[in-house]
Amino acid sequence: MTGLLVLEQSLNGLQFGLMLFLLAAGLTLVFGIMDMINLAHGSLYMIGAYLVASIALASGSFWLGLGLGVLAAAVLGALLELTVLRRLYARDHLSQVLGTFAILLISNELVRMVWGAQPLELNPPAALAGPVELLPGLSYPAYRLFIIGVGLAVALLLYVLVTRTRYGMQVRAGASNREMALAMGVDVRKLFTAVFALGAALCAVAGGLLGPLLAVQVGMGESILILAFVVIVIGGIGSIRGALLGALLVGVVDTAGRTLLPLLFDWLLGPEAAANAGPAVSSILIYLLMAAVLFFRPQGLFPAHG
Amino acid sequence: MKTFASKTLPLTLAAAAALSLLAGAAQAADKVKVGLLSTLSGPGAGLGIDIRDGFNLALKQAGGKLGGLPAEVIVADDQGKPDAAKQTADRLLKRDQVDFMTGVVFSNVMLAVGKPIFDAKTFYISANAGPSQYAGAECNPYFFSASYQNDNQHEAVGKTVMDKGFKKVALLAPNYPAGKDALAGFKRFYKGEVVSEAYTPLSQLDYGAELSKMRASGADAVYIFLPGGLGVNFIKQFVGAGLSKDMTLFGPGFSADEDVIRAVGEPMLGMFNTSQWAHDLDNAANKRFVADFQKEFGRLPTLYASQGYDAARLMDAAVRDVKGNLADKAGLRKAIAAAKFDSVRGAFKFNSNGFPVQDYYLRVITKDAQGRITNRTLNTVFKNHVDAYVGQCKMPAL
Amino acid sequence: MADRPDHSLPQAAQAIQPRPGLLDHHLPVLPALLLLAVLLLLPTLAEATGHGFYVGVASRILIFALAASSLNLILGFGGMVSFGHAAFVGVGAYAVGILMQEGVVSAWLSWPVAVLASGLFALLIGAISLRTKGVYFIMITLAFAQMLYYLMISLKAYGGDDGLSLAGRSSIGLGLDLSQDGSFYYLVLALAVAVFALLHRLLNSDLGHALQAIRENEPRMVALGFPVYRIKLIVFTLAGALAGLAGALLANQGGFVSPSMMQWSESGMLMIMVILGGVGRLYGGFVGAVVFLVLEEVLSSFTIHWQLGLGMALLVVVLLAPNGLLSLWRKRGGA
To answer: In this predicted structure, what is the pLDDT of residue C184?
Structure first.
């Protein structure tokens, strides 16, 4: 029984970690290449989820919603970059904090105005709504397996993109030494817009996939944004490999913390203590990990060879 | 000076006293101001919106008046957060100077805004939250519940699960005052084995971990208290994990009402739940309420809407009873406590702690004659049920 | 200024005479007195126009001005971008809340405890965080603040996630009833003025000059032999303690403390206020807090979609007034 519990929790942790990776990948690229702190990254996740949900609801097809929603989010991201964010690159981090915070407020309110204050219903496609018998006695939701699959596929795609294409080479060059890349003649403007659009698309994939599990609601980006920052710090700013490994680490620690710790507290101290201390202690653990990395190895566990 | 002190001053004082007596005595207010503070955003938004709609429907039926006086309802969003709620409550009480307050959905918010409301000597008619604290040790003359006491629906399910012979139950509720009240109430009447008891943060929407634990615990029945969007998420994930095949799902009326049914649909068929109200209750007030609500809003009302509706009707009866003299707090309190109105639940009366004494029914989710998935009332679980905390209440003076 | 040799600084450093005008912050007396007069008259004006409720709002704005100024000390003048400052405000608030729950109502006891507690936390967190630099410093202060936030959530004895209501305001004696909005306002004003005067003296002192010089060029200050880490830590601790005072006042003003006061978004909001007002300007925190909160108050009474207006206003400021609102007023140095 406990073995199955651990296995199931590991799968949950893997699923959560891979979704965190999608968010962290975009964030780490923006931070690493454009040296920009983007507090509005969570808003891209939220808007992506809303776009996927609305198209899915309007067309009746989850797949159409996912496909078109992601595309729409990429376009939106590119537009945002071209109009507003471009002006913040040259500024100091504090101005970027102010500017992207403003965008966060604006997007929260715009979403509320367009879609209303109540959460949107997004259901997984009917084919994936039931469980799959992985092992005798272990039924795992098909939809979560699907998320894991998509997460791994996107990670593989990103790997191929970054290591095997010309564009990816420019991205890696920009991440490891921006000035040198500029000096070497990389077309900075187009690269930045493309990176940002890619980040927005990744956020939309995560938002659309997590929508059926969580709720598509205003402000859903804030809580996951902070975890994304934790991930890129632990992994190493500007490093996609770092983002993946960091996200998996955080995902597993978070899930294990939320399940194993309460079990421990429950066994030792009873359900009330488990309920009060359990979730909080596991969150504290993640931030402790982040602080430890910052103190002992600030460039991250898997840095982008800066 | 002497003239002033001996002639003018006493005359002025007497005149002032007379004026103030006139002002105080039987001075009907020219309108009634109600502060409706509810959760209108986030996963709990559906509940607050229903309370608001139910309240407004009653108002509309009375021509925009409460007790014959024109009513002004100030609707505010507490976002489900105690700190935001407290600031908004302060504004409603101090700037807008409301005469009544109502609307709070969540008990943690209720406990945060209760004290300032009572300190401002403003009557609070609850359209949902009924924390055990206000039924017992912290009872207050300004608090009345037009809904229920938090434990009650759960007590009714506890009795039902016990009667149906389930031996191993897994429990789940959010980690906040109403959640604790819920599981305490359930365990008060269910005496079998509790194989798993879990509390989750109110903000948690992903129940993967809890579902794994339930599977591992070997329970044959699962009892959840998850209001609004939380319940929607849980039930979908419960079915998605395949647990609905091995375990029977029970919930209080909150987790199985029209809003959840609309969102989840077919997977909910066969789920048992209890409530103090159902839309098929056979009395004139209810028939009118359900018909008008459907016509006005295009959907079946939930029990939240029925509570909002009753809260408005209670206020209406009370204001009429004191003939609009809202300054007479003692008289107003007596009028509210008398509860001389036609509740959609049928007969309605208050206990000495301001909480209702009422019946609780068992409902099941089935398809009705028109093929809609909805609740059907089966039988009465409790008659004239009293909450477990009234003995601890020593009601302070006004 | 440098009228007495400071024996805490190394010999070489004492030979450097600070040039007036660059690191000094002149406080023009007349505008300051005028502002003070307006603030003193505020409650009377509010009551007279029937808007007594807004005295409470004004108290809240002053408290945030205090908190923002304490952040400005380390962020604006010290160049230490702390993303966890709201945690110190929260510690101060909880100190008052917890003591009140345990029966200690006297402000003379609970407010100094609040200041000391937050100062202590600032000392501990600063001691570790100040070993890092740049964006890593930002992130590590964020991490510590989040840890404190989750710690308070787990303490159900003090409300946990649902927060803690205060039975009433602290009692201070002296014939002042703090539950009266007017009296509370005057006390807050007095404390805010005192802190402001303290900051003014500090920034114009040797320590303040050293701090700003560290912000301008840290390696040079290290090379010159200044105890850079110690200076930064002292100021960080002081800023934390002042934030704790703001927290104690905030707990009194709202009558409620909750872990959400310590969240990263609250720290972000404080940072926004400082940036908005003018980083490294004497009035930066004050102006930023006033503009931000007044905008919030005014916009929310007009429309339910006030966050849109606020966001747009902030965006305009960041694009057009790169160094904060005060930079539009005076171009160089000064207040």
So the answer is: 93
For C:144-173, CB contacts with A below 8 A are 144, 146-147, 150-151, 153-156, 160
CATH number for the domain running over C25-329: 1.10.3470
Contact pairs from chain A to chain C, CB under 8 Å: 119
What CA–CA distance (Å, rounded) separates A228 from A220?
Answer: 13
Give me the CATH number covering residue A38: 1.10.3470
Say whether B177 and C53 touch across the interface (CB within 8 A): no
Pairing of strands B349-350, B356-367: antiparallel
CB B252 within 8 A of CB B274: yes
In a domain, A153, yes or no: yes
Chains that touch B (3 or more CB pairs under 8 A): A, C
Structural domain boundaries enclosing A193: 16-296
pLDDT per residue as tens, chain A (306 positions): 577 778 888 888 999 999 999 999 989 988 888 888 899 999 999 999 999 999 998 998 899 999 999 999 999 999 999 998 888 888 888 888 889 999 999 999 999 999 988 888 788 888 887 888 888 777 888 899 999 999 999 989 988 888 888 888 887 787 777 778 778 887 778 888 998 999 999 999 999 999 888 878 888 888 889 899 999 999 998 888 899 999 999 998 888 877 777 778 777 877 777 777 777 888 898 999 999 999 998 888 888 764
Sign of the CA dihedral with B149 first, then B154, B159, and B164 last: positive
Scan for tokens 């780490």, then name that residue.
A28
Nearest to A225 by CA among B67, C146, B143, C141: C146
Strand B248-252 and strand B349-350: the pairing is unpaired
How far apart are alpha carbons A190 and A34 in whole angstroms?
Answer: 12
Identify which has the larger pLDDT, B36 or B5.
B36
Q: Which of C155, C265, C311 lies nearest to residue A102, judging by beta carbons? A: C311
C124 touches chain A (CB under 8 A): no
Q: What is the model's pLDDT at position B304?
A: 95
Domain layout of chain C by residue ranges: 25-329
Would the CA dihedral through A142, A145, A147, A150 be positive or negative? Answer: negative
Q: For C73, phi and psi rounded to 5 degrees?
A: -55, -50
Complex ipTM above 0.95? no
Structure tokens at A29: 């690229």
DSSP assignment letter at B42: S
CA distance C41 to chain A (A): 33
Give the nearest partner residue to A259 out of B43, B209, B239, using CB atoms. B209
Residue A95 to residue C81, Cβ atoms within 8 A:
no
C-alpha neighbours within 13 Å on the C-beta side of residue A294: 28
Which residues from chain B sit within 8 angstroms of residue A279, using beta carbons?
A: 200-201, 204
In a domain, A4, yes or no: no
One-letter-per-residue 3-state SS of C20-61 = CCCCCCCCCHHHHHHHHHHHHHHHHHHHHCCCCHHHHHHHHH
Residue A120 pairs with which residues in a beta bridge?
Answer: A216
Determine whether the interchain pair A274/B198 forms a contact, defined as Cβ–Cβ distance below 8 Å: yes
pLDDT of residue B185: 93
In terms of domains, do B53 and B131 share one? yes
Name the DSSP letter for residue B262: H
Q: What whole-number distance in Å separates Cα of residue B212 and Cα of residue A134?
A: 14
- In angstroms, rounded to a whole number, what is the distance separating the alpha carbons of residues C275 and C290? 13
Query: What pTM did the predictor assign?
Result: 0.87
Round to whole Å and give the CA distance between C238 and C122.
Answer: 8
Distance of CA B371 to the CA centre of its chain: 30
Q: Is C254 in contact with B94 (Cβ distance < 8 A)?
A: no
CB A131 within 8 A of CB B242: yes
Interface test with B, best of C256, C265, C266 (most B CBs within 10 A): C256
- Whether A9 is in a domain gets the answer no
Phi, psi of C278 (to 5 degrees): 140, 105
